Every structure is written in C-alpha cells, then in structure tokens.
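Bumping my old thread because nobody answered last time. Still need a sequence for this structure:
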C-alpha cells in the first residue's frame, strides 16, 4: 500500500469517529474509578490508552489451575497460547504460529520493564510460573514505537516490587495425571527495603507417552526506595526445565490411540527410542534504577544478563546450545507539571547475544558424531521517541517512532524506522474512540536463520507491515464495560515454516498476507458477587501473492489460524468464602497446511474451578479443586503445521483433576 493510500485510510478512520460522535446519545452516567495500567512508558487507564491493551489481573489469574498460563491467556481476545506437549509453549498475538514450530517468537516479553526476549528474538516463557506475577499487560499488534522490532505484540509481566508487609505463603498441588507441585513465596519488608523469594518444584506425568515434565524455579527480588523520587531494584532467577517431546501423530494414529508417542517408521526411530527431550538451564539477573532529575524530568535505566544452556535430543539429531545474552534499556521522561498537556519519552534498548550450537547424531538418546557446529553473535539496537499531546475537549494524540537495526554474521542486516500515530477522543465520561496507524518490523529469529535443518538462510528477510486500527471502548454505571476493536494488518515478506523430507524445519519469505480482524471483550460485574467476562475474536487472515514452486496459495487462509475463537469465564461468589470459576473456550477449525487441504476440527473446552477461603487466627488460606476438559474433548492444543507425513496431531490431555491448598502467614 502506497503512502497516500495509508494516509487516506487513516483519515477514513478519523471520519468514522466523527460519525460515531455525531450519533452518540447524551450520557448522564457518572464517572467510575478507572484502573491504571503501565505500558509504553505511561500509566493510563484502559479507557484512554491509545493502544489495544488487555489487562490480566488477579481475577484472571484465578482461572489457572496452577499448572499453565494457557487458561489465563486464552481468555484474552486475539491471544492464543498453544501447548504441543507439557512445557512446550507457543504464543500468537493476532496471528498464526506459522513462524513458531515451538517456543515464543515475534512477541516481545518484559518482566518489570526489563527485556526477557533475547537478541535472537526467542523467549523461554515456559520457565515461569503464573503465581509469580500479579498482572500481565498485553499490547496487540506492532509496538515498534517503544518496544523495538516485532509485529506480533508485547507482553509485560509484573511481579510485586514493593511489599506492603512481610508474609510467608506455601502451596501444595496434586494432579490426577500424576503431578505434584509445591511453591514457596517469602516476602519481607524492612523499612524502605523489601525482599521476595519465590520458589517452585513441579513434577508432572504427561497425558501421552514420552511427555513427562520436571521443573525447578527460584527467584529473588530486592527493592529499595529513596525518599519519594529514587528507586533501586534487583531481580534474579534460576530455572531448570526438562520436558519430553512425544512428537506429532498422523490422523489414523491420533484417532486410534492419542496417548501414544510418535512411533518408529521404517528406519526412522520414534520419540521413545530417541529419548526426545528439551532441557534448559537458565540464569537471569537484572538491576534497574530510577530517579527524578528535575521537577519535570525523570529517568530509568536497567541492565540484565541472561545465560541459557539447552540440550535437545530429538528424533533427527542431538543439539546442544549455549546462549549468553546481555540487555540494556534506558528511558528519559519529560512531563511539565505546571502544564500537563504535553509529555515526551526518549530512550534506547540494546540486546546482544552469543549463540553457539553443536549438532550431533542422536544414537538412541546418546550423542553421536558431530555433524555441524555453528557459532554467531547477534545484536539489536532500538532508539525511540514518543510524544503525547493533550488538547481541550478530551482530544489526545500520541506520536512515536523507533529506529531499529539487527546485526548478525549469518544474513543481510536491515535498518528500518517504525512510526506509530494514535488519535483518541474521550466521549462524555465513560466512552472513548481510538484510531491508530503503526508500522511493524520483525527480523528473523536466530532459530529461523539457523533452523533445525542445519542450512543457514542468508537471504531470509525481515517481515514488515502496516497496521490500521479503530477501537471503541466504554463502561456503564451498572457494571458493564466493553472494548470493540477492528484492525487490518498488511504484512510483507511473511516468514513461513517449511519442512524437509525428514521433518527438519526451515523458513522462507512467502510474499504478503492480509490480516483483518475484529475483537470484542465484554465484562460485567455485579457488586462483589458475580463477574462474567467474554472474549470474541474473528480473524480473516489470508495469503496474498504467495506462490510455492508450482502451487499458488494466494487467497488461502493463513496456516495455524482459527477464524473464530470465543472464550467465556465467570467468577461467582456462592458464599463469602466459596467461589465458583467456570470457563468455556470454543476454537473453530484450524488450517494445518498452506494448501488448506488438511483441517483441525473445532474444539470445545470446559474447565471449572471451586475455591474455598478460610482463616485461623493469623493464618489465611484457601483450598481449591479444578476439573479441566470436563467434556473429555479430544483435541490438539498445538498442532504441527505443514508437517511431513501429515503428522499434525499432538493430543491434549483428556479430563483431569487438580486439588491445591495455599496457606499464608
């Protein structure tokens, strides 16, 4: 799309606002308290934010059975978390997981404003525990104006920094599939300083053969405030995650026995014979400081070190990777306190990492002869500037941009400027309309440039695209709030997954995709007794100008994307102490290959959790029980896309139960 066409489209969105404003009836409702969230270096209400933000708060987090982020994130419109097997996460925000055979790619993740995504554009999100965080903010679509390269979106994870009081909490959890988990959460407050130690231990037998999980995680956080303006924070964790990978099944194998691992086929060994496993040991430490320079100027600065060691015997080979990474992010904030009509933020983010890989033959779970050794360094630099203008009559404009560059020794380096412009208008007290245009830039990850096939692709280009968005938000005095968003994302140089004849991954640019969508979130709360939340996603994602050898896939649905997803959950207080939390997720069919000839059927997933709170003197606690997949639905929570031999299917667990007890003193 040419520049003048982009401007015209943006003006059309603005004229649409004028139309809405004209027909808007007089609103006599009173102003309700607004929850503030921090994103794009600003603390705003969801109603007035110029971006498509979703907030996962403590109410959302209660949905979880304590074992996975899946029930939580899949309750958000436009967000899908898939698990090919226990511990094998794949996250897609407003798009398919076409670039991710496994892992989190093209989604930037931060922990208390510090990057967890490494220089190679990978994030090992599966290391973390839902209980570690009290809030998750999700920004959908390109966020290059402040968060650098990426078209998929941003997840901001927040754990408590300053503790209000000292507390020791412990939780025990048992799962009917053979799982045991315990967590410890120790919080200490000493004057202006606070400490938090969080530790978890989890062993879980998988639903399928060759899908067990073992996980150890411990973190430490220290926070210190200096008067009213300064702060110092230190965070660190060590995680060791080991999970087996059962591999994909054909449809016949999936229907006959969904619990089996990928079997041996001719001379090719199966997952059990090769002891297919993913093992990661990860260490992370970060220090952040902030202060007020002047009445109108403040700053924040953070540096982090992350060291990952991965051992991955697979059906094809045995890979060992060492990945030390360093990140640095600094921001200067300007806000004139005598005239709050203008504010600005300027900063940088720098990521650098060394990615060393050795690939051996896999001799029944043991390292064989060295097949390939590849060592490379990757660096990313983002410099960004954001302006916010507030005008009379509740008009606001946000204008930002970032200059992004990625250096590797493996392929051509690219530099691009990513602008972002948002126009918002608050209508009466409790309604707002936002129109936004933003460009995204997503360079290939190290796993795409150097895939499991072992063949480096020096010509792989970054994805680039323009996103156009219109949101209408509001809330009423009787407890109903809503957020309706329409968007269109034109993506060029789309990166897609391919597989060799023996099942190895490799990636290519396949031309353009056109992604049109609508998201609707409704939330109704009746006092403290009843809350219901619905999230609806319509996704019309199509390939454009996509030809592969002699096949023309232009017009086909984007692989790995469901055209319709509906999530509903409720929080019902039966008594003051007894709470019922049911959840339902409907996922429409998913196209498993680019030709759209193979389809994963729609699935209907029911989960329910019951929680009982109690107190004995100073001891506070709750006992809970959950049932997942109540209908015992047979479905695949994370299919393998474009799979060789049509081995698409990774069966998710059938009906299973969990019970847990948490006490705090």
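Sorry it took so long. Here it is:
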């Amino acid at each position: 799309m040419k520049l003048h066409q982009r401007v015209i489209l943006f003006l059309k969105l603005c004229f649409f606002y004028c139309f809405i404003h004209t027909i808007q009836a007089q609103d006599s409702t009173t102003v309700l308290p607004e929850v503030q969230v921090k994103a794009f270096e600003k603390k705003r209400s969801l109603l007035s934010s110029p971006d498509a933000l979703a907030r996962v708060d403590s109410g959302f987090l209660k949905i979880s059975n304590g074992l996975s982020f899946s029930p939580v994130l899949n309750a958000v419109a436009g967000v899908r978390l898939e698990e090919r097997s226990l511990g094998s996460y794949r996250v897609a925000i407003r798009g398919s997981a076409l670039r991710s055979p496994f892992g989190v790619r093209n989604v930037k993740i931060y922990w208390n404003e510090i990057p967890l995504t490494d220089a190679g554009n990978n994030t090992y999100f599966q290391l973390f525990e839902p209980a570690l965080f009290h809030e998750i903010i999700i920004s959908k679509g390109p966020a290059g104006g402040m968060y650098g390269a990426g078209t998929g979106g941003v997840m901001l994870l927040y754990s408590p920094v300053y503790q209000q009081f000292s507390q020791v909490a412990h939780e025990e959890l048992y799962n009917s599939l053979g799982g045991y988990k315990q967590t410890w959460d120790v919080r200490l407050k000493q004057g202006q300083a606070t400490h938090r130690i969080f530790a978890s231990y989890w062993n879980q037998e998988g639903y399928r053969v060759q899908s067990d999980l073992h996980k150890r995680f411990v973190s430490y956080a220290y926070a210190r405030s200096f008067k009213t303006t300064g702060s110092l924070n230190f965070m660190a964790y060590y995680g060791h995650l080991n999970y087996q990978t059962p591999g994909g099944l054909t449809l016949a194998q999936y229907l006959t026995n969904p619990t089996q691992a990928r079997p041996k086929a001719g001379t090719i060994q199966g997952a059990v014979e090769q002891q297919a496993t993913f093992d990661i040991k990860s260490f992370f430490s970060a220090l952040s400081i902030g202060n007020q320079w002047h009445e109108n100027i403040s700053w924040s600065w953070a540096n982090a070190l992350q060291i990952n060691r991965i051992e991955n015997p697979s059906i094809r080979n045995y890979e060992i990777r060492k990945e030390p990474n360093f990140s640095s992010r600094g921001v200067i904030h300007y806000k004139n306190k005598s005239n709050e009509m203008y504010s600005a933020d300027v900063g940088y983010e720098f990521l650098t990492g060394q990615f060393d890989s050795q690939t051996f033959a896999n001799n029944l779970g043991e390292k064989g002869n060295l097949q390939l050794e590849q060592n490379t360094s990757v660096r990313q630099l983002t410099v960004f500037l954001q302006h916010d203008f507030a005008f009379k009559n509740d008009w606001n404009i946000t204008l930002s941009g970032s200059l992004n560059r990625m250096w590797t020794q493996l392929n051509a380096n690219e530099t691009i400027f990513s602008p972002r412009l948002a126009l918002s208008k608050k209508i009466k007290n409790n309604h707002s309309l936002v129109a936004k245009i933003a460009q995204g830039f997503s360079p290939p990850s190290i796993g795409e440039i150097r895939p499991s096939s072992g063949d480096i692709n020096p010509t792989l280009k970054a994805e680039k695209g323009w996103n156009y968005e219109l949101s209408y938000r509001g809330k009423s005095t009787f407890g109903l709030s809503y957020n309706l968003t329409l968007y269109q994302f034109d993506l060029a140089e789309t990166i897609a997954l391919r597989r060799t004849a023996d099942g190895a991954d490799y990636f290519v640019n396949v031309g353009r995709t056109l992604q049109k969508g609508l998201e609707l979130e409704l939330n109704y709360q009746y006092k403290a007794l009843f809350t219901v939340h619905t999230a609806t996603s319509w996704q019309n994602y199509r390939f454009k100008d996509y030809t592969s050898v002699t096949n023309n896939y232009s017009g086909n649905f984007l692989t790995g994307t469901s055209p319709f997803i509906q999530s509903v959950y409720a929080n019902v207080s039966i008594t003051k102490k007894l709470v019922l939390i049911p959840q339902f997720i409907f996922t429409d069919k998913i196209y498993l290959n680019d030709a759209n000839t193979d389809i994963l059927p729609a699935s209907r997933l029911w989960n329910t959790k019951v929680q009982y709170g109690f107190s004995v003197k100073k001891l506070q606690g709750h006992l809970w029980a959950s049932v997942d997949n109540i209908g015992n639905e047979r479905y695949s929570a994370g299919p393998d896309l474009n799979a060789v031999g049509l081995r698409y299917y990774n069966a998710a667990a059938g009906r299973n139960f969990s019970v847990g007890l948490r006490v705090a003193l």
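The mean pLDDT is 87. Let me know if any region looks off to you.
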